Amino acid sequence: MRHGNKNNALGRKKAHRGALLSNMAISLIEHKRIETTLAKARALRRYVEPLITKSKEDSTHSRRVVFSELQNKEATAALFRDVAPKVGERPGGYTRIIKLGNRLGDAAEMAMIELVDFNTTYTKEKAAGTEVKKTRRSRRGSGAAKAEGKAPEAPAAEGGEEAKAE
After folding, report:
1. Structural domain boundaries, residue 105
2. Percent of the chain beyond pLDDT 90?
């Protein structure tokens, strides 16, 4: 009976589930986003968010606690070096789960889990130089005129100027 048991077993024994979540957490820290099933993404969120909270305080004790969960020196260092400074003022909710639809082979619900502060699409502040200028393009200019080096004529613009002058 599973009375009051809130963890999702994911069809695995405890040791296998722990290794799965640890490896997925390492991949998430390394790549900043991964695609997996929805159930695994939700289990990973509950696993990795306390680790990120622990990484906000950079002490020997917190590093050892995080390393005992991840068992990967590079991922632990990346968590404290790259992730923790970006999420320093955020009180929680470090990950975002986006549903992607069903997998073709077995119709499992797929999802993408990502670290929130590393996706520039949804963040308010954008890096300098990433803004793209939008230009208006008309259908009047022909490709042949541009190829010959001539500027396309715009009769509507001339007519509009004359109308304003009158």
Report:
1. 14-118
2. 66
Tell me what the mean pLDDT of segment 125-153 comes to.
62
Amino acid at 110: M
Task: Name the token pair of 31.
Answer: 């790549």
Q: How far is CA 49 from the centre of its chain?
A: 15
Q: What CATH number did the domain enclosing 56 receive?
A: 3.90.1030.10
Report the distance separating Cα 111 and Cα 46, nearest Å.
Answer: 15
Range of lowest pLDDT (2-11, 102-111, 139-148)? 139-148
Radius of gyration of the chain (CA): 26
Query: How remote is the C-alpha of 108 from its chain's centroid?
Result: 21
Look-up of token digits 């022909």:
142
Mean pLDDT of 16-45: 97
